[in-house]
Task: structure prediction
Amino acid sequence: MSGKAKAGKSKYVSRQPDENGCIAYSPAENEVWRDLITRQIPMLPDRACKPWIDALDEMNFPINRIPQLKDVSAVLMDHTGWSVAGVSALIPFTEFFQLLANKHFPVATFIRTREDFDYIQEPDVFHEVFGHTPPLTDHRFAAFVEAYGKAGLAADPKDHAMLARLFWFTVEFGLVNTDEGIRAYGSGIMSSPGELVYAVESDKPERKPFDPVDVLRTPYRIDILQPVYFVIDSFDQLFELAQSDLLGYIKEARKLGMHEPMYEVT
Ligand SMILES: [Fe+2]
Result:
């Protein structure tokens, strides 16, 4: 999951790189990465969409150690001119939007402990790098994330929380229609074996056709399996969204009002 762009407290602290831009992870930390990635990769066929799986091949992540950010950036730079930027676990909206608008994807650099192996609320380096970076090699997806950052910078701060829903239901928890059936592309799904099976195969969640105004009207909770997902037709739809008036959609959503939450409000 990701609590990105939300202020809050975490027991985790992001790791600082040395003067060569490298982070010296311990053998135990590298083993957590190894065990997470070797559990997740076999889950992907028939659940992740093909562009995402192809993009994972392009990333060519090491299995036995946590990738270094400069190596991740080098691949992204080659494809779409993006890079990753190490940040603390949770960053303010303005910093988040600023980074995206400049084609830098913020990445928390700590990795979860064994205790949190199956579930962590904060975004760790496995979620950030494995979950988020592969589709940033696709120019359509990358254009959407950049446009999203620019819209965030232009938006009234009172609209930031609403704009966060657009990121949540696409970049974090997006599904896509394919000839073979529904597939996933969102990072929160890709970095969680449980949610990957649930999002694609379970008959419990509602899966709605993607509509930007509908998305902006839909509240979410970060700490549960999602009760609703939005399904795009392909990354082309995100590319079209990147050219559209995102702030206009916010105005329309405000006018129509919010949907009732589909979960228990705590
Ligand atoms: Fe995330």
Q: What stands out?
A: Strands lie at 83-87, 104-108, 175-178, 181-184, 206-209, 228-232.
